Amino acid sequence: MTDTMNGPVTPLAQELRDLLTEKVGGLDRFAGNWSWRSHTPERRAEQTLAEAVSTLENGVSLLSNEGLAPDLVAAWRNKAVTLWLAYQAAGARTANPMITGPANFPVERNRKAMESERRRGEEYYEHVDHPTRYLARLKRSAEKAALSAEAATADHHAIEFPGVKCVQNTTLNRIQLLFDGKPEPDTIAKLKGEAFRWSPREGAWQRQNTNNGVQAAYRVLRSLGHGAAA
């Protein structure tokens, strides 16, 4: 297939265009997004769709060329599509008084709608303009997962008390408090006050394994009545 303005259309671009067109309910329906904003809503709809296709194609190609697994490339693409749809939906709720006419124009309501559109646009462009950041986050996550797996097999110094275990995790360089269940709200407040943060990956409240961190763990343990913690 050929784009009359830009030459041949790649299979990936056609796939993305078909996907986005389906998601917005067709080009004619999508043009309705600009009925209150443009004298040429059909042209704006076509331009916006073409821009999105080009942006997503570039991101997908870049991540694929970097060797990212197809399912992870698809995850990036799917998030981009979701953010783009939210951006377009927010824009459809805005209006231009030059199009609608100034009489009884809802200025404050339109201001709020435009602010919402701006936020959705920032979210979308933050994702699609920096696919390498997405790749970097995945690599960091994989590295953390590998460290967690290594830490799980290591013999770390640990002290156990009723309902809680204190672990000096030297692999992750963290002092960890592992509770049998979710701590009480006042205990969580104490943990946060001592700079502990919850790690879903580790299933532990943890902070850096320093002398200050160890002393903070002991203070939390003593507050729970474990006087043997020293």
TL;DR of this structure?
The chain is an alpha+beta fold. The protein is built from nine helices and seven strands, in the order E-E-H-H-H-H-H-H-H-E-E-E-H-E-E-H. It has two domains: 2-142, no CATH class; 154-223, Aspartate Aminotransferase, domain 1.
* Unreliable sequence segments: none
Q: What is Rg?
A: 26 Å
Task: Please identify the structural class as seen in this structure.
Answer: alpha+beta
Tell me the strand order in the biggest sheet. 3-4-5-7-6
Q: Main β-sheet, in a few words?
A: 5 strands, antiparallel
In percent, how helical is the residue content?
55-70%
Note the overall shape. Answer: elongated
**Number of helices, counting only DSSP H or I runs of 4 residues or more:** 9
Average of pLDDT = 88
Q: How big a fraction of the residues is strand?
A: 5-15%
Instruction: Please give the number of β-strands.
Output: 7
Q: How does this model look, in words?
A:
Helix content is 60%, strand content 13%. By secondary structure, it is α+β, with helices and mostly antiparallel strands. It folds into 2 domains: 2-142, no CATH class; 154-223, Aspartate Aminotransferase, domain 1, CATH 3.90.1150. A 5-stranded antiparallel β-sheet has the order 3-4-5-7-6, covered by helices on one side. α4 packs antiparallel against α6 (107-128). The longest helix has 25 residues, at 41-65. 23% of the residues are buried.
Topology:
Blueprint: E1 2-3, E2 7-8, H1 11-23, H2 27-31, H3 41-65, H4 70-92, H5 97-100, H6 107-128, H7 131-153, E3 157-161, E4 164-169, E5 174-179, H8 185-193, E6 197-199, E7 204-208, H9 211-223
Antiparallel strand pairs: 1-2, 3-4, 4-5, 5-7, 6-7
